[in-house]
Amino acid sequence: MLHPNGVHHLAISTADIKKQIEFMTDVLGMRLVALYWMHGVEGAWHAFLELDEHSYVAFVQMPAIEKLERQLGVTHAGSGGGASAGGTMQHVAFNVDTPTELLALRDRIRSRGLTVVGPIQHGLCDSIYFAGPEDLSLEIATSERAIDGRAWIDPEVVALAGISPAELERFRAPAPYADRGGQVAQPPLDKSRPWMRGFPPGVYEHLVTVPDDEFTARTSQTEPPVRS
After folding, report:
1. Which residues have C-beta within 8 Å of that of residue 89, sequence separation ≥ 6?
2. Where in the chain is the domain with CATH 3.10.180.10?
């Protein structure tokens, strides 16, 4: 079945990229693998910290971020059970493979002078919770086996969410998709559906009319900042 098979990178805004890199490398042991001017975004830096060879946590720093106020309950949840605005990151959970590794990582975090709560045994995973710089809500989780939808899809919550039996069946088993080899044409921009609203007026409306090959040729920057 055609679907994404992992998270390549989760990008988080920061007003202090050095502080985030220090935390992720020292407290969590992630390896810094990229730090460069963000392609196509004037004044922005981009950092990648490795979870594995195909999965990363990324940070974006740009001057405008320093002027934006963090507000718990609005921009940030402040905990794994807190509220934040729709579309913002409520919390991120990093994976380890075993309960033993979960406790070992808890020890590492505490050894850096940070408080951690848990594990909490959720049934589908065991988790510990702690905070990162700039009010990040962080979790480390481990699961012994894949999540079983027969046990963990609650009929009461399905009904409260307004999901019909037919919709639930579709959500549990998405329809197969026949690959068309990248030949599907760009549809007209429909602003009643999700679209990238953060561009200056008229810019995104123009970008979606540019032919794919031309867009790739005009925007791609494949050379690393340091050449061996």
Report:
1. 10, 12
2. 1-68
